Amino acid sequence: MTEPFTLRIVVRGYELDTQGHLNQAVYLQYCEHLRWESMRAAGISQAALIDTGVGPAALEQTMRFHRELRGGDEVDVTCSWVWGEGKTFRMEQEIRRADGVLACEVSCVAGLLDLEKRKLLPNPAEYFAKLAEHPEIMGL
Fold first, then answer.
1. Most exposed: 15, 32, 67, 110, by fewest CB within 10 Å?
2. Are 110 and 89 in contact (CB under 8 A)?
3. Could you list the active site residues?
């Protein structure tokens, strides 16, 4: 298995809830950002993907919170692509404070949607592999 794609993000004050914790929706935004950044690093831009008539579609997301995050915390967000058979794939993600403490785990089941037919493509890994310049970043 390839090392997960990782970026460091600093928690900004405007992302906090009334208790001073990172708002739960922002955890998902961080993870979504990492998914697109990992595709970009693999050589697949958002525009190029959409130009081919397809786009990723999140079907299910599960979040597990372990520790709170506060403004100014530096976090490492990861994205590991997990491929299987059929129309769906998974992205396993972690958000860890810079000191290594796990703050949140996010698991996402997704597919690659034909934007005209509004149907999932049968083999998303094969499709992504053809587009990617560096498929290993996506575990392909």
1. 67
2. yes
3. 17
Alpha helical stretches, state H, the chain: 24-41, 46-51, 124-131
- Residue 55 inside a domain? The answer is yes
Range of the domain at 68: 5-135
Q: What is the pLDDT of residue 1?
A: 57
Question: Is 115 domain-assigned?
Answer: yes
Q: Give the pLDDT mean for 98-124.
A: 97
Mean residue pLDDT of the chain comes to 96
pLDDT digits 0-9 by tens, 7-62: 999 999 999 999 999 999 999 999 999 999 999 999 999 999 999 999 999 999 99
Q: How far, in Å, CA of 63 to CA of 7, rounded?
A: 19
Is 101 a member of any domain?
Answer: yes
140 domain-assigned? no
Mention every residue, 6+ apart, whose C-beta is less than 8 A from residue 81. 38, 89, 90, 91, 138, 139, 140
CATH number at residue 84: 3.10.129.10
